[in-house]
Automatic annotation (TrEMBL):
Organism of derivation: Microbacterium jejuense
Record-annotated membrane-spanning stretches: 28-46, 52-72, 108-125
Annotated keywords: Membrane, Transmembrane, Transmembrane helix
One matching Pfam family: DUF2568
UniProt name for this protein: YrdB family protein
Keyword Membrane: yes
Entry keyword annotation includes Membrane: yes
Length: 130
């Protein structure tokens, strides 16, 4: 017989009502990736089009990204969607920022951002599912 006592695993403690779990480093990195994507889209809009259109694109591109993020991806999303749909929407926002950097002639920045954003997204997504 074993000398170890039987142990029953307990589920992690839920935060008290009205509070949330403390932020982790992955949460902070995911937020930084989101902000970088939005700033990248604004920069792309303001620099890649002629005057008058650049103002429209510079304001509309990040506004659309923020709207899509708020509707489907944010922690308090308007529509509760399947985690797979959430991951696809998040990936589309990150991919649009990556393509924006490529169109501005900075492929290495776009590639680096894409790798970091997808890695952080996968880690954060696995934490949400588990």
């Amino acid at each position: 017989m074993s000398d170890t006592p039987p142990v029953t695993p307990r589920p992690p403690a839920e935060p008290a009502p009205g509070t949330r779990a403390p932020l982790s480093a992955i949460d902070v990195l995911a937020f930084v990736c989101e902000i970088f994507a939005i700033v990248s889209l604004a920069l792309w809009g303001f620099t890649m089009f002629p005057f008058a259109w650049n103002i429209l694109a510079g304001l509309a591109a990040p506004a659309i990204a923020i709207l899509v993020w708020a509707l489907f991806v944010s922690p308090r999303a308007v529509f509760g969607v399947h985690p797979f749909v959430r991951a696809i929407v998040e990936l589309l926002v990150y991919a649009s920022a990556t393509v924006a950097w490529w169109m501005m002639g900075n492929a290495w920045i776009g590639l680096g951002f894409g790798i970091v954003a997808v890695t952080v997204g996968v880690i954060a997504g696995r934490r949400r599912i588990a």
